[in-house]
C-alpha cells in the first residue's frame, strides 16, 4: 500500500486532487476482492465509490495485513483480530468487520477455560487433552476407552450418561485423564465442569461453618453439569462430611441426573470401608452403604495402572 500512501501525500490544488483521487480509485478497484464486490453490486455508481475511497483504502490495507499476519497480539488492524468485509449499505459501499480465525480460536479458548473450574487441582490438569495423554501404556487403555465413551455418551444424552470411577495407584494419570474429559466436553459442546481435590475441599467446608457459606459452596457442587471428585477416600472422614456434605451432594445429583466422576486409590469395597469408620462414631456400615449406593449404581469402575509419573 505504500504507493497509495505516497499518492495521498501533498495533495495541492483541486485539479491535482481530482487527478490523484482518480488514480487512487483505479488502483483500489484493481484489487480482486473489491472488483468482485463491484461486479456483484452494479447498482452502486462511480460517484459513490469515489466518495468512499477512505473505506476502500482501509479495506485493502487491512487485508494486506492479514495476508502477512504477524499473529493476534501484533495485529496492526484498526480493530485487532478483525477483518473488514464490504457490504452494500442501501446503495453505498460500506465496511463491516468479522473476527478472524485467530481471534475466534482465542475466544473459544478463553470461553473453554471459563467452563472448566477447579478447587485445589494443579493448573496443568486443566490443560490436559486426549491428544497429550500417553496412549502407549497398556494399563491406560481401558481407562482411555472409558473416558472417550463417557464423553460420547454425555454429548448424546446427558441425563443417561453414567459416571466414571477411576481407581489406581498414585501418579498413574487418573486426574490428568479427568482433565482431558473436561476439555473435550468444553470444546465439543461448551459443557461446564468442575474438578475438586476432595481432601482440601472438605477441610474448606468445615471452615465454612464459621461464615455460613457451607450451603453456597455445596450448591456449586450440586448444580455443576459435570462434577469430578478427585482423590476421594484420601480425606479424613467424619459422619457430618459423609452424610451432610457428600451424601447431600450425591443425592441431589442423582435426582437431577447429573453425572459425577471420581478418582481414588480405593476400589468400591475399600472406599466403603473408609466411609464406615470415623474416630468419633466408630463403625457405621449402614450409612456408608447408603453413600456407596449413590456411587456404585451411577458409575463404571475402571482400574487404571501404569508407572508413577509424579
In short:
The protein has 310 residues and is of the alpha/beta class.
What brief labels describe this structure?
two-stranded antiparallel sheet; six-stranded parallel sheet; 10 strands; elongated; alpha/beta; 310 residues
Number of helices: 13
Rounded to an integer in angstroms, the radius of gyration calculated over CA atoms is 30 Å
Q: Specify the biggest β-sheet.
A: 6 strands, parallel
Strand residues, percent: 15-25%
- Poorly predicted tracts of residues: none
Q: Which percent range fits the helix content?
A: 40-55%
- Structure classification: alpha/beta
Strands side by side in the biggest sheet: 3-5-6-7-4-10
Global outline: elongated
For the record, give the distance between the C-alpha atoms at the N and C termini, rounded to a whole number.
55 Å
- Report the strand count: 10
Helix-strand topology string? HHHHHEEHEHEHEHHEHEHEEHE
Mean pLDDT: 86
